[in-house]
Structure formats: structure tokens, C-alpha cells
Automatic annotation (TrEMBL):
Protein name as it appears in the record: YtkA-like domain-containing protein
InterPro entries: Ig-like_fold, Invasin/intimin_cell_adhesion, YtkA-like_dom
Signal peptide: 1-23
SUPFAM superfamilies, sorted: Invasin/intimin cell-adhesion fragments (SSF49373)
The species this protein was found in: Collibacillus ludicampi
YtkA-like domain location: 38-118
Keyword set includes Signal: yes
Keywords: Signal
Length: 137
């Protein structure tokens, strides 16, 4: 038994339209949107400037986004090295709360040092270098 084209063609067209419409429908599940606003990182040392050999210095970054502390940084590391030296120390920071991350560091020799922070948070990476002079006691 043969079915005439005039009977199955409209059914095929309707099925095609329904299938196409179903495939194009949007799935409206809610997803958390990531904030793409830039991170703001404030970098400091305590004491702020005059450092002598043997002094323990606190190296600190305060990380925020849109004025709010970033408590969920994936990684905060400080890179410390003396001028003209190839060897750099990479030191993982302690989380202190309110977006503050820090390390204690003691400078053993006089000279010019560089400190670079590396902050990875919310799919962003921020880094900046600071120069610090360490003088004799």
C-alpha cells in the first residue's frame, strides 16, 4: 500500500518545523556571571622605605574588585631577588582576611632588591615590580 505524497508531505513538514523549533529553544538555567572588572592591587612594605640589613619586613598586597575585598584569590605569590642576581625566591603569601595577603621577609645583605607580586584571582593575573634599597646597619 502506497500513501500519496499529499498526505505525508504536510506531516513531514510539521515534524521538521517542530524539531527545528525545539532545537533552537533556549535553556534558561541561571549561571553565576563572572565579574570582569579589573582587580585593584595595593602593594606595600612595613617599614615603608628605610630598611636595614637584618630587618624583618612585612610585604603586603591588598586585593579588591569594585571596592570590595577579594577573599578568594587562587594564588598570591611574592618574587624577591637582589639586583643582578639570576636566582629569584618565590614565596606564597599568607591570607590575612579583608583581601590582605602578606609575607614576612628578612633581607640578609645590603643592596637593591626587587619585589614582584603575582596575584591570580577571578580569571585574572596581576603583577607589578617594586624596588627596595637595603642599607647597612
Amino acid at each position: 500500500m502506497r500513501i500519496p505524497v499529499s498526505r505525508w508531505l504536510p506531516a513531514l513538514a510539521a515534524l521538521t518545523i517542530v524539531t527545528f523549533a525545539w532545537g533552537c529553544s533556549s535553556n534558561t538555567t541561571e549561571t553565576a556571571s563572572l565579574d570582569s572588572s579589573p582587580l585593584h592591587v595595593s602593594f606595600s612594605t612595613t617599614p615603608p622605605s628605610t630598611v636595614k640589613v637584618g630587618d624583618q619586613v612585612t610585604i603586603t598586597v591588598t586585593v579588591s574588585q569594585n571596592g570590595k575585598p577579594v577573599e578568594d584569590a587562587k594564588d598570591v605569590t611574592f618574587e624577591v631577588w637582589k639586583e643582578k642576581q639570576d636566582q629569584h625566591e618565590m614565596i606564597k603569601a599568607n591570607k590575612n582576611g579583608d583581601g590582605v595577603y602578606s609575607i614576612p621577609y628578612t633581607f640578609r645583605q645590603e643592596g637593591t632588591y626587587f619585589i614582584m607580586y603575582h596575584v591570580t584571582a577571578r580569571d585574572q593575573h596581576s603583577m607589578q615590580k617594586m624596588e627596595l634599597k637595603v642599607s647597612k646597619r
